[in-house]
Amino acid sequence: MRIAIVNDVRMAAETLRRVIAAVPSYDVAWIAYDGAEAVRQCAIDPPDLILMDLIMPVMDGVEATRRIMAQSPCAILVVTATVEGNAAQVFQAMSYGALDAVNTPMVGVDGDPSSGQALTSKVATIAKLLGKNSGRGRSAEPAPERVRSLEVPSLGAAPPLIAIGSSTGGPAALAEILAALPATLRAAIVIAQHVDEQFAQGMADWLNDRTPLPVAIAQPGSRLQVGKVLLAGTNDHLVINANLRLSYTAEPRHYPYRPSVDVLFESLATHWPQPGQAIVLTGMGRDGAQGLKTLRDRGWHTIAQDQATCVVYGMPKAAAELGAARQVLPIGAIAPALLSQLR
Length: 343
Description:
Helices cover 34% and strands 18% of the residues. It is α/β, with parallel strands linked by helices and 343 residues long. The longest helix is centred in the middle third of the chain and has 14 residues, at 117-130. The termini are far apart.
């Protein structure tokens, strides 16, 4: 896999080069020392993945991500000195199409690249999503295990439910939908966004500032409540159980999407006592498509975001091709459609 490095600190760029060079199947495509240079280089020689710093002169990583995704899109991993300290910029970059974020590794004076394990783990996951995990072309994405179909309990206390799955470009799409919903919303909302647990709380806080509805991380054992938004908050998969309480599960362990939209949707199809509404938003890959189809087959109202308003038309496209979506809508039309269904 060809990987480009964008970082204005030459020592940091060299650290990243060493970490990448230590993996036999990875090659450094090029190095840029500011965002503007990265935009030019990407137009000439698009790599498979860019390791993008955030705070740089001339052009920062957020604007560089926006321009690259608009002009010559490719996978982007934000690599910054502190993910938590730069949370707002991280979510803005993710809104433009960055896949994930990780702290810049520190390589000691002996040149040992072992401190880059968090980075290489992220890169390996992205390689799976890109089909670059072997030298034999695109590999099939492993499907999540289907939740075993059980009798759905008849629990009248369950509120109307809106379930949302999103990935690349998801933060901005989620913010737009949630901002258009009233504080008096008579439904519960649960979200699975592909986001690392180290900044899931930061994302919940970021969304909370953009909607009249309270947004919080889903805690094990909690219940979905009217007028409250719960966001999956770990690298395990969020699920609903037969007692209508939330929990996290590590299975399926080898599914590259974490937390998985499919796993959440399948658990809702099995355990939620009445049909609700489910949406698949912008994102790379196919996660959520099969789960959305299962929910549609159970009578749920299902929506996929349209191609024109997606940062990456992967997950919604897969859902539409599978016949999982009753409606395919631009992002601005989704909140009104949800409210119309609730009425």
